[in-house]
Amino acid sequence: MATILGANSVTGYEVANSIRFNAGDSAYLHKSQGSGNQRTFTISFWVKRSRLNDRQAIFSATADGSNECFIWFDTNDELFVKENTSNSTNFEIRTNRKFRDVSAWYHIVVAYDTTNGTAGNRVRIYVNGSEETSFANETQPDQNFQTKFNNGSTTLNIGRMNYNAEYFGGYLAEACLIDGSALTPTSFGEFDEDSPTIWKPIDVSGLTFGTNGFYLDFEDSSNLGNDKNGGTDLTEVNLAATDQSIDTCTNNFCTLNPLTARGSSGTVISEGSLQYAAVAGAGDSSVFGTMGITPGMKVYFEVKLVQNTAQNSIGIHNLYDGGDGEFVKGGSEAGTYSFKPRGASSVTQYFNNGSSNNHSVNNAANDTILGVAIDNANGQIHYSLDGTFINSSDPTDNDPVALVTGFGGSTEQYIHASLDTSGGTEPINQFNFGSPPYAESGGESDANGHGNFNQAVPSGYFALNSKNLSEHG
User: Residue 434's Cα: distance from chain center in Å?
Assistant: First the structure.
């Protein structure tokens, strides 16, 4: 599995925050639109997906469920730009490209100019700086067609549309609407001069946003719908300060990868792919993280054991997705190294290369913070429970040595977790790779200033994100 950095490891303009939408919360932003230019305008945003194979609206302009214009990902993960009137299609552009990479950020620009005499130039889609030209369907609007965007009688939504209440699951950053201009991607980003295949954001605050335009940078956690351009703010629905994230298009953080969810069909990955749960009684399941830990790198993250009610394994595997895309029960295979804060027979357990060992530490209580310090230089994993390292092991000098040891540190390793849900209560883990999905007042970061952790990050260990990978990976 290749680590995908996208526009993340380069210097220059920095995006501080994104917003995290959880579809299960029916979370979205909205406002009544003013009257603007319904023929010529541009929508631009950076997006990182965490929910696939389902219809999810990013932007929509809605009169009601039968009359709306929208930009969404469809059930087959293609991008749709479409407008309906009385449930009849006015226009529809659907990409052949499938947007299934949950480990990277995409920059998407949709430029509308229905005044253009060339039909194919009336709605144009750009991804990561390049125009999309391959479409599964391309029915362009009639010349001078007036869309429902910038229509004073409709509601603008971000993260939702009225039709079947299609909610988005994932992250958005640098969301803009430019009223009155059909812009190209170079108004919002540029290719890196040293790495010309890397598309990165630029400062958009100097653009002319127009009468009905806006710019959302998501830097005010108390007002995530704040229009940085000074216009009317969007109203948050089912969003909270904890939905502000530091996972952005200039520093991409590890999350869980729903494409590697194996075993039980009751596996539930949510909260921006940071919550891992399973339906009680549905059977065993497993999942991997999106980023590899390179040889020699030391990584720290935390897991809040919200409901530590089933066998619960957290560790690494030396093959991504088990090497075969099959379910991997915690620690049971050769090449797996892990700790179970709730193990078999009501005891904690640890695993070295698939070999099981019971430990005298009691099963962790609900809401315990499990610290995970992975040393891929010396081949050890140190675990702490609410700040106390098990066996008093010392991650900084490996004396005393960690419980989990022996993987050598010479190959890339991959974060792996599994749950046994044969019991009667749903188990829930929340992963904090630096931007927690829960309220965290710890305020601890790594030596590079990345992350918000409950406990002090051991010296020499770093959050798993693209900036740290470019420096230490």
Answer: 12
User: From the centroid of its chain, how far is CA 349?
Assistant: 31
**What is the per-residue pLDDT across 442-462, written as a single tens digit (0 to 9) for each?**
999 999 999 999 999 999 999
Structure tokens at 65: 């469920």
Report the 10 Å Cβ neighbour count for 439. 8
| Domains defined for the chain, CATH in brackets | 18-245 (2.60.120.200), 256-472 (2.60.120.920)
CA 273 – CA 102 distance, rounded (Å)? 9
Residues facing residue 469 across a β-bridge: none
In angstroms, the CA 293 to CA 1 distance is 11
Amino acid of residue 402: A
| 274: Cβ contacts below 8 Å, ≥ 6 apart | 255, 256, 430, 431, 432, 433, 435, 436, 437
Euclidean distance between CA atoms 133 and 418, whole angstroms: 41
Name residue, tokens 């939504």. 157
pLDDT tens figures, 419-435: 987 667 789 999 999 99
Q: What is the enclosing helix (H) or strand (E) of 201?
A: strand 199-201
Q: 372-397: string of b/e by CB count within 10 Å (b at 16+)?
A: bbbbbebbbbbbbbeeebbeebebee
Q: How far, in Å, CA of 454 to CA of 430, rounded?
A: 13
